[in-house]
Amino acid sequence: MNAPRNRGRWRRWRRWLLALPLLFVLGTALQVLVLRFVDPPFSAFMAIRQFEAWTDGDFGFRVAYDWRDLDQMAPHVPVALVAAEDQRFAEHYGFDLEAIEKARKNNARGRKVRGGSTISQQTAKNLFLWSGRSYVRKAVEAWYTLLIETLWPKRRIVEVYANVAEFGDGVYGAQAAARTYFRRDADRLTASQAARLAAVLPSPRRYSVSRPGPYVQRRARAIERQMRYIGGAGYLRQLD
């Protein structure tokens, strides 16, 4: 009596298990497609940071986040991010193979560990995932990166990244960072201020925008030079 019932139960479970990959593909694709047109109200990193504060008993902590469209930011902001993080952003399709190979060789020589993450990958991680180095997280990040590059134009990718990148503990996006550190809106940031924001990436809790040490100062100056090298504000025309 129980054998047919158990076989039927197993077949139902097997159908669900076979359907899970399809549901994941469709669900994540819909998620990314919606966010091409709808500005995200928060990111995974923001939610995790807020939860961490609450679990530590800091109920007064509030994430600083204030969305701004790309045309409501000074053009220095996206240009600084590209100059600092991903100078081949306009050319690649989500993964910079040259940067990955360079990072692999650099790490193999025993130098400081470096990654080859693109702005597209950073956007996927900040918006949908969590920090860490597990193979599972990297695989999911790669999938979201492919979706983002397929479903979003380049301008949307850098717009979202400029809004969800962390520029200090609990400070997310160019507008919140501009108000926090420079007491002005993102559309009034100068090239040097935008470069200083980009200089603390990808370790915004280690480095300070408001009290930049020698490393951040040197990196900010280098980013300003690279901003001019890639074309300054005119660079954004490559993303159209």
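Above is the first protein from milestone M3; the second protein from the same milestone is given next.
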Amino acid sequence: MNPTTAKPPPDRLYGRARGHKLRPRQERLLEVTLPRLALAEVLPSGPLWLEVGFGGGEHALAQVRAHPEATLIACEVFENGICSLLSALVPEGDEALAPLPPNLRLWTDDARVLLRTLPDASLDRLFLLFPDPWPKARHAKRRFVHPATLPLLARVLKPGATWRVASDDPTYQAWVRDVMAEQTSFDTEEPATARPDGWPSTRYEAKALRAGRQPLYWVFRRR
């Protein structure tokens, strides 16, 4: 499918927001812990990073622990994934009082809603790691890497800011190549075939490797 003829993205990119029924511990995490990590109206000072679709939260937690100088806004709509990250942060029974990383904020709606509200040139780094590939051609409009989304990303990323993208899906890999070949806002390079230094692993990467799929790792730089 030619990305230049793709339909515009729908109002939301994601499918369902909940999988199996939540346990009482997970319900309490959403009720008590999640609001403590909500994004404030005033953005923090210092480097600002954004992860779109943090999955189980492994990458997000590794980044905030390794880079206390940067604030990471981690976006995820799937409640089970949100609970996975929250459960790794706080002991059971201490959901309301356990210390939380001061440089982590959570956003639980479509990431594009947040991106539209961010000031120009406000992001220093963007992560999109192993997103849902929406492999069927009729679902291409739901892919985050999309010609219609690139101007929005170009607006909020600072000149020289980096956008990391990783995928193990051949259809999505080809799509990323085609989309990025047609744009002029980002410098592009050939993707790495091994996870670069400084890229914390995720459960989705591990699953892909166990299945024998070859991930690709891109770094796009805002011009």
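Note on the second protein: The chain has a mean pLDDT of 93.
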